[in-house]
Amino acid sequence: MDHTKNERGNGMFPKDQRLSPLIDDGDFEASTDGGVAFKKGPWTAAEDAILIDYVKKHGEGNWNSVQKHSGLLRCGKSCRLSWANHLRPNLKKGAITREEEQLIIELHAKMGNKWARMAAHLPGRTDNEIKNYWNTRIKRRQRAGLPLYPPEVCMQALQESHHTSAVNDGDKGPHGILQNDSYEIPDVVFHNLKANQNVLPYVHELPGISASSMLLKDLASSQYYSFMSPTIYCQKLLRGPTAFFPGYTGSVKSECPLFEQFEDDMLNKAAQSFGASFPIGTDPEAKNSQSFGVFQGSHSLPNGSFSASEPTLEAVKLELPSFQDPETDFGSWGTLSCSPPLLESVDAFIRSPPPSGGLESDSLSTRNSGLLDAIFHDSKTLSSAKNHASDQSSNSTTPGDITEGSDFNICKTAWENCGEPLSPLVHSASSLFSECISASGSSPDEPSSGETFTEIQKEDRIQLDSGRSDTLLASDWLEQGSRYDPDQTVMADTIATFLSDDLSSEYKNMAAGTSFSTPEWDLGSCGWNDMPFVCPMPKLP
DNA sequence: AAATAGTCCAACCGCACATCG
DNA sequence: ACGATGTGCGGTTGGACTATT
Fold first, then answer.
1. φ and ψ at residue A104, rounded to 5 degrees
2. Of all nucleotides in the shown strands, which has a C1' nearest the CA of A86?
3. Are residues A473 and A354 both part of a single domain?
4. Which nucleotide is nearest to A85 if distance is taken from CA to C1'?
5. Are residues A159 and A118 in the same domain?
6. What are the phi and psi torsion angles at A38 (to 5°)?
7. What does pLDDT average to in each consecutive run of 10 residues of chain A (541 residues)?
8. For A383, which of A267, A405, A468, A530 could close a Cys bridge (C-beta 3.0–4.6 Å)?
């Protein structure tokens, strides 16, 4: 038996250690179970031989009896693990091949962290091996600012998931993975979210998960970091420095080096404008790891295209830690000391529909206040103090596009403070969306289906009552705000600019390379076409 | 050459589920 | 039905190795 752990030569335990004829060199702690002291730590060659001999005689299984039959001082678990990962025949050693890598990526896009199931598709590879490989890959790509999934994998997985959802049962797709097993998400959730995918393409990933919960988890564990959808990155931005400079995103930065020059200064200024009490953007490490780098990496590829690094519905659901379950009592989050009240307010805001007479007034929340109200108020105050800047901004926009006191003015002012006469990136999302829609052959003003957005929304609200996305609510709110209340438009602006880059990125991506039918991606019927999006944003080529 | 950071991966741990008596 | 036991799985840890500073 070849005990070589790693043909790359960097295995944890040197061969000579495993080849040691001694079973117990006394260097490793032992655990006891029923009076028997089990050895822990790396296995020796002698132990391997004993275990192999045992399996030859008794077959696999009944691992707890190994000690009884062979005298091997290892617990059953350890025996099973050693056999499965190192000793069983037909194990493939060596580096993951290109083909295997591709398969792993595809499988992970469909399954999530189901290593054992993935291993079943990779003969000779163990779940542990795949898991280790994937975790390393996550770190590597995270560090490099690359999306976790290649766009084509995302699209394939997404399309397959759509297909799976459509057929429900029977034909489950070509891979046999999307079968009606534990990965299946009840159709009621995602079917109803489809109608809103045009607004937030990633909304369906994380139904019922609050921004704060996602962020807190995100900050607490890097394990899920790369799985965060761009939407979640946006939500994260609400809590990070960039929340106070809504137009700024990593994507912008990546495509416009100009942002590099003034990001720290501008962010600090913007933050101060909003009364932020914490320093911003001075720590490059924090900058990379907490918002900019991740955001950047999750959106842009080296070739300038936008990533669609989204796992499928199945994967996302599976990767949610238990406390991200929609049924989790989110109220408990407020008790976390690491969560500033400011951030809680964002959640409260995002979850809350518009306070003024919208169609869904029955779902009005008394929690509609907090950070964004404060932003709204502060921005108005600031705008009053800097009315001249507001007036100048009308050159690049129509009067209706910019409401006095909008965050745009602040951004613009900040930009001017940084020495630039006017941001070259000012770009109307309305026109941007129009481009996208036109590219995909659909008019934003003409719903291609007979069903209006409002009708879809109504239906969705009813059916998504317990599982709706925070971001979805935000979209609802935005629509309402932009239509019914001039004041709300300002706040809608604020939120819109938070989201704008993601939306534009995704729509750009979709319009350029996908074949989604227009009803899936129809923007016009949702009212976003009229949204006064004006924020620093890269122009489409 | 030393220190540091990053990578890799074996092994452990806790939990969930299945089976058995 | 229930507890004990066995098994499988996913997450995490920690040490060796390698690359970089």
1. -60, -45
2. B10
3. yes
4. B10
5. yes
6. -90, 140
7. 34 36 42 68 87 86 84 86 86 83 84 83 86 82 72 67 47 33 33 32 33 36 35 32 31 32 36 36 35 33 32 39 32 34 33 34 32 37 40 36 36 35 30 32 34 34 32 34 38 38 37 33 31 31 32
8. A405
